[in-house]
C-alpha cells in the first residue's frame, strides 16, 4: 500500500532516494561520534576496523537482497537503489582497508608488506576489495550501455566477492561462530535463491 | 599454617587486621626474608589517581589491610608507564562474560567474588578446600608492573598486586610426582553468560596449566589487586594468575582449583585449536600465529593517528629471566 503510494507520487521517490542515500552514512556518523567522544575503548583502532568491516558485509548483503525482494514481492522500484548500495559497499570496504592500514599498521611499509602477503584472511579480504573496484568503475549507465551483455557477466563477480568476504569473516573466528553463522545463512539464502531461479528457468527452456 | 574451612568464624573477626599485618611484618623482619618496606628494591606504592569517574573496587574488608601494606617490588617491575586504569578495566578478554572487549566490564559487575574458595588438589601433601582469606593470609602482597602481551597482538603495562605462585605452592607440599600445575576457572553459567552460549567452541570450565618449574619461577604471580585496589571482576577477581612472558590466555582468571599433576594438563585454548594455541604459549615474535604475525604488537592505549606499534620481544622482554627454562627445546614445535 505504501509502495503504490510511492509509485503514485512524484515527490516521494525523491524523498526515498535521499533516505537511501543518507541511511548508509549513519553508521559512519555514529562511529565518528564515538571516536570523537573517546568511547571506543583502549583499542579504538580495532573497534573502527571491525565496525567498518561489518558494515561492508551488511551493505553487500543488502545489495544482494535487492533482486530477490524485487522479484518475490514485485517491488520494481527497489531496482534503482541497487547501484547506490553497491557503491556504498565499495565505499565502506575502502574505509575498512584505510582504517586498517592507518590505525593498525600505521602505514609502516614493512608491516603492510607482511600483512598483505602473509596473513591469509587479509589476502582474501584484499582480493574481495580489489574485485569490487571494476564493478564500481563500470557502475555508470554509460558503461552499462557500452558493455551490454558483458556488463552483466562482469557484475556476476559480486557473487565471488561475497564468498571471499564471507571467507575473510569466517577466517577470523576465535571461539564463537554466532555472527559468522548468521551472515552465512543469509548469504546462503541470497545465493540459493539465484541458483533456484536459474534451475527453474533452465528446466522451462529444456521442456 | 593453613586453616581449613571448619569454623563459620572468619579469622579476621578474631584478630583485627592491623594487628595481624603488623605481626606478620615483625615476624618477616625477624626472619629476614620477604621483601617488605625495609628491604632494598621495595618502594611505597604511589597514591594512584584512578580518575574521578572510574569505578573503584575496594575489595572485601579482610583484603584491604594487605593491599594497603603492600610495596612495589622494583626489581620485578618494568619502568614503562602503566596503561590508564580506565583502559585496564574495560579492555578484557574474559569469554565467560562475552567476546567483546567491553563485555566483561559490562556483564561481570555483579559477579560474586567474596566469599571465595579455592581447592588445592592432586600431588600435594595437604590437599583441601580453602577460604581465599586463609589462603592469602601468610603472603605479603607486592606490586609488580608487568607487561601483558595478548595473543591477538595487543599489549598493556599493568600494575598488579600479588605474590609469587611458588610461595603458595610450597606451603602445600608438592610431592615428587608433581610435574605440572593445572588451574581451573569457576564454572557458573548462572553468573557467566558466555558459558551459556550455544555458539562457543570453548569447553567450560576454562583450564590452564604450567610446567612445575614455570609455576615456581619468581616472576609467576598470583594477583589479587590492581592499581592499589582489589582486582575488578572483569580482570579475574578475586584470585588470578599472571605469567608475564606468556601470551595473556595463560594467565587464567578467577581460579577455583589448583591441581598438581604428573601429566601435562589439557588446556582450554589448546583443545579448541591445537594448531594455533600451544601449551607453552611463550611470547615469540619468530613464531607467527597461523592466521597472523606476532612480530609486532599494539601497545595500548593506542591513539588513533599515532598507532603505538612496537616490535614484540622474545618472552615478552623477560628472556633474561626465563629463556633458560626452555634451553634445548625447539620453540617452533613447543609453541
From TrEMBL, chain A:
Q: Does the keyword Membrane apply?
A: yes
Q: How is the cofactor bound?
A: Binds 1 heme b (iron(II)-protoporphyrin IX) group per subunit. Binds 1 FMN per subunit.
Task: Report the sequence similarity comment from the record.
Answer: Belongs to the MsrQ family.
Kindly indicate whether the keyword Membrane belongs to this entry.
Answer: yes
- Highest taxon of source: Bacteria
Lineage here is: Bacteria, Pseudomonadati, Pseudomonadota, Gammaproteobacteria, Oceanospirillales
> InterPro entries given for it?
Fe3_Rdtase_TM_dom, MsrQ-like
UniProt cross-references to HAMAP family, sorted A to Z: MsrQ
Domain named Ferric oxidoreductase: residues: 52-165
Q: How does it assemble?
A: Heterodimer of a catalytic subunit (MsrP) and a heme-binding subunit (MsrQ).
Which organism does this record belong to?
Marinobacterium rhizophilum
Official protein name in the record: Protein-methionine-sulfoxide reductase heme-binding subunit MsrQ
Q: Which residues cross the membrane?
A: 55-73, 85-107, 119-137, 157-174, 180-197
What cofactor(s) does the depicted protein rely on?
heme b; FMN
Q: Where does this one sit in the cell?
A: Cell membrane; Membrane
Role of this protein: Part of the MsrPQ system that repairs oxidized periplasmic proteins containing methionine sulfoxide residues (Met-O), using respiratory chain electrons. Thus protects these proteins from oxidative-stress damage caused by reactive species of oxygen and chlorine generated by the host defense mechanisms. MsrPQ is essential for the maintenance of envelope integrity under bleach stress, rescuing a wide series of structurally unrelated periplasmic proteins from methionine oxidation.
Q: Which UniProt keywords apply?
A: Cell membrane, Electron transport, Flavoprotein, FMN, Heme, Iron, Membrane, Metal-binding, Transmembrane, Transmembrane helix, Transport
- What membrane topology is annotated for this entry? Multi-pass membrane protein
Automatic annotation (TrEMBL), chain B:
Annotated signal sequence is none
Q: Tell me where on the tree of life, at the top rank, the source sits.
A: Bacteria
Record: residues binding Mo-molybdopterin: 92, 95-96, 150, 185, 235, 240, 251-253
Q: What is its EC number?
A: 1.8.5.-
Give the matching Pfam families: Oxidored_molyb
Q: Which Gene3D superfamilies match?
A: Oxidoreductase, molybdopterin-binding domain
Residues in domain Oxidoreductase molybdopterin-binding? 111-269
* Cofactor(s) this protein cannot do without: Mo-molybdopterin
**Keywords on this record?**
Metal-binding, Molybdenum, Oxidoreductase, Signal
| Entry keyword Metal-binding | yes
Catalysis performed (reactions):
L-methionyl-[protein] + a quinone + H2O = L-methionyl-(R)-S-oxide-[protein] + a quinol; L-methionyl-[protein] + a quinone + H2O = L-methionyl-(S)-S-oxide-[protein] + a quinol
A GO MF label: oxidoreductase activity
What note does UniProt attach to the cofactor annotation? Binds 1 Mo-molybdopterin (Mo-MPT) cofactor per subunit.
Q: How is it modified after translation?
A: Predicted to be exported by the Tat system. The position of the signal peptide cleavage has not been experimentally proven.
Q: What InterPro entries does this protein map onto?
A: MsrP, OxRdtase_Mopterin-bd_dom, OxRdtase_Mopterin-bd_sf, TAT_signal
Enzyme class comes to oxidoreductase
Describe its function: Part of the MsrPQ system that repairs oxidized periplasmic proteins containing methionine sulfoxide residues (Met-O), using respiratory chain electrons. Thus protects these proteins from oxidative-stress damage caused by reactive species of oxygen and chlorine generated by the host defense mechanisms. MsrPQ is essential for the maintenance of envelope integrity under bleach stress, rescuing a wide series of structurally unrelated periplasmic proteins from methionine oxidation.
In the record, the note on similarity to other proteins reads: Belongs to the MsrP family.
HAMAP family in the cross-refs: MsrP
Quaternary state and interactors = Heterodimer of a catalytic subunit (MsrP) and a heme-binding subunit (MsrQ).
**Name of the protein in its database record:** Protein-methionine-sulfoxide reductase catalytic subunit MsrP
Amino acid at each position: 500500500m505504501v509502495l503504490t503510494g510511492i509509485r503514485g507520487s512524484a515527490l516521494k521517490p525523491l524523498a526515498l532516494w535521499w533516505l537511501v542515500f543518507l541511511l548508509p552514512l549513519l553508521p559512519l556518523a555514529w562511529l565518528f561520534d564515538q571516536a570523537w567522544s573517546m568511547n571506543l575503548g583502549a583499542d579504538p583502532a580495532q573497534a573502527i576496523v571491525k565496525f567498518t568491516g561489518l558494515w561492508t558485509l551488511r551493505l553487500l548483503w543488502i545489495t544482494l537482497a535487492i533482486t530477490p525482494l524485487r522479484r518475490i514481492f514485485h517491488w520494481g522500484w527497489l531496482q534503482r537503489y541497487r547501484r547506490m548500495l553497491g557503491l556504498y559497499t565499495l565505499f565502506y570496504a575502502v574505509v575498512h582497508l584505510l582504517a586498517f592500514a592507518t590505525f593498525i599498521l600505521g602505514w609502516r611499509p614493512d608491516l603492510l608488506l607482511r600483512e598483505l602477503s602473509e596473513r591469509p584472511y587479509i589476502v582474501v579480504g584484499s582480493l574481495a576489495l580489489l574485485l569490487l573496484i571494476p564493478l564500481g568503475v563500470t557502475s555508470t549507465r554509460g558503461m552499462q550501455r557500452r558493455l551490454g551483455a558483458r556488463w552483466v557477466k562482469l557484475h556476476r563477480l559480486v557473487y565471488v566477492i561475497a564468498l571471499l568476504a564471507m571467507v575473510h569473516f569466517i577466517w577470523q573466528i576465535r571461539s564463537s561462530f554466532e555472527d559468522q553463522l548468521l551472515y552465512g545463512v543469509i548469504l546462503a539464502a541470497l545465493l540459493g535463491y539465484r541458483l533456484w531461479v536459474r534451475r527453474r528457468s533452465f528446466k522451462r527452456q529444456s521442456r | 599454617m593453613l586453616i581449613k574451612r571448619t569454623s563459620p568464624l572468619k579469622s579476621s573477626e578474631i584478630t583485627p587486621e592491623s594487628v595481624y599485618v603488623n605481626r606478620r611484618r615483625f615476624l618477616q623482619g625477624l626472619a629476614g626474608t620477604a621483601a617488605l618496606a625495609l628491604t632494598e628494591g621495595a618502594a611505597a606504592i604511589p597514591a594512584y589517581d584512578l580518575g574521578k569517574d572510574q569505578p573503584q573496587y575496594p575489595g572485601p574488608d579482610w583484603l584491604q589491610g594487605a593491599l594497603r601494606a603492600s610495596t612495589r617490588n622494583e626489581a620485578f617491575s618494568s619502568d614503562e608507564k602503566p596503561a590508564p586504569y580506565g583502559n585496564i578495566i574495560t579492555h578484557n578478554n574474559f569469554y565467560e562474560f562475552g567476546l567483546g572487549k567491553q563485555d566483561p566490564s559490562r556483564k561481570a559487575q555483579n559477579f560474586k567474588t567474596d566469599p571465595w574458595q579455592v581447592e588445592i588438589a592432586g600431588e600435594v601433601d595437604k590437599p583441601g578446600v580453602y577460604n581465599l582469606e586463609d589462603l592469602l593470609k601468610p603472603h605479603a602482597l607486592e606490586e609488580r608492573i608487568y607487561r601483558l602481551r595478548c595473543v591477538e597482538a595487543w599489549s598493556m603495562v599493568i600494575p598488579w598486586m600479588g605474590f609469587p605462585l611458588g610461595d603458595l605452592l610450597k606451603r602445600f607440599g608438592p610431592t615428587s610426582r608433581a610435574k605440572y600445575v593445572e588451574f581451573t576457572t569457576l564454572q557458573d553459567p548462572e553468573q557467566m553468560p558466555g558459558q551459556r552460549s550455544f555458539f562457543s567452541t570453548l569447553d567450560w570450565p576454562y583450564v590452564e596449566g604450567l610446567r612445575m618449574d614455570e609455576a615456581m619461577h619468581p616472576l609467576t604471580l598470583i594477583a589479587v589487586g590492581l592499581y592499589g585496589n582489589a582486582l575488578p571482576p572483569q580482570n579475574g577477581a578475586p584470585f588470578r594468575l599472571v605469567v608475564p612472558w606468556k601470551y595473556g590466555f595463560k594467565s587464567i582468571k578467577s581460579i577455583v582449583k589448583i591441581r598438581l599433576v604428573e601429566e601435562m594438563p589439557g588446556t582450554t585454548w589448546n583443545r579448541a585449536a591445537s594448531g594455533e594455541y600451544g601449551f607453552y604459549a611463550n611470547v615469540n615474535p619468530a613464531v607467527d600465529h597461523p592466521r597472523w604475525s606476532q612480530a609486532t604488537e599494539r601497545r595500548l592505549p593506542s591513539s588513533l593517528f599515532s598507532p603505538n606499534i612496537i616490535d614484540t620481544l622474545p618472552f615478552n622482554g623477560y628472556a633474561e629471566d626465563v629463556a633458560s627454562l626452555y634451553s634445548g627445546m625447539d620453540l617452533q614445535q613447543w609453541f
